Amino acid sequence: MTGSSPCLALRRIRKRFGATEALAGVDLTVQRGEVHALIGENGAGKSTLMRILSGVIRPDAGEMELEGMHYTPASPAEARRAGIAMVNQELAVAPHLSVADNIVLGAEPLRLGLLHHAAVRRRAADALAELGRTDIPLDAEVGRLPVADRQLVEIARALCAGCRILVLDEPTSSLGRTDAARLFDLIRRLRAQGRTIVYISHFLEEVHALADRYTVLRDGRTVAQGETRAATPAQLAGLMVGRQLEELYARSPRQAGRTIMEVDGLRGKKHAAPIRFELCRGEILGLSGIVGAGRSELLRAIFALDPVRSGRVRLGALAGPASPLHRWRQGVGFVSEDRKCEGLALDLSVEENLTLPRLPRWFSPQHLAAECAPWIERLGIRCPDPGLRAGQLSGGNQQKVALARLLRTDSDVLLLDEPTRGIDIGAKQTIYRLIDELAGAGKAVLMVSSYLPELLGVCDRIAVMSRGVLGPFRPASEWDEHRIMLAATAAPHDR
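^ that's the sequence the OP posted. Answer follows.
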């Protein structure tokens, strides 16, 4: 599996951004033909290190070797030519181009100075065949493909460019369980072909099952390296946060109160049957199901973001048509799964994003900073300056800003769509504790998650959605991962 000499060696890498030292002497050694996990909390330096590897930025100090040769890429294009390809969590596809055109993007074959269309299709077909996905049409518009297939197109582009090292950054964060399993099979196949893969993930169960070796970063430093089989997920989590985690899923004694929200016969754009349920104060309801089952659409319909074909949502004594603004005023808060396009205004500052729904009485930089400081501290948002653009934060810290904004509004009903996506294990523990505290204070939570241990650990009742039909809410104690997956993949009339 591994060679005698490393395929990639990074030594004493340092990088500073103003007063912030992002990397303080990081070492990373990756063997040829292995899956190497790079793990650490948000802000630990993983993204900065990979941006250096892929030629986006230059290090301030340190040295890099690729296949035993000195390696100093001056640009992403130069890194690609050297055989480094990176597939980011936010996919970089051209949505209006075809599958074939996306696969050869940046390395288009030419003949007499013109695009060689036959060669484009041949190279794209060969790359997809190597991935075992000849079923993806070459002429399909990439923007119309499922997320899992768009990700495969990016991986195919990397293979087409002749990559020797493939970096996958949180590759399962937007995938359902079935698509994630297919991706794991693909990674194992690429490893068997001799490809080298750097795998970045907050899902430590994935790391333990998939990776040969690991490197842990903490506060811009390498704190541990080793063989994955010699460490448990709990030990890896302890290395990431610098301490042994207590019980991950906070669950204090609580009892459901009166009904605060009633959904009666609701049908959104993806719901095959009317949806009915009640949400009580002091209760956390969980929604499970495979991607595309209609879970997110249900939350969006409740919050009046998506059109409703029939039915109503009653909040206390209020019912009938509504808008997102009405929902905010009625005490309902919503966190979207798509933080990049819907969750945040990325060009505004962290403090502006935090205060958007409810601006402080005195609107000045000093008051904004004072208003936001407690929330930044409470959720552990890593930013050197609250005036920094939200788009400059890591994905996990962006998610924390979206959650902090919701908590600041003191809503009575919280609609959370994948609230811990892209968040590290330590921050997840913080979020779980916050959700538990909110329920204990009488708030009501409706939560969508693709991470089944999270639903089972946090929620009081869970329901499974399949093909637009919502099953009954049952106590979490009556579910396990196997039962949830059976319900999620069964035809609605079989449940």
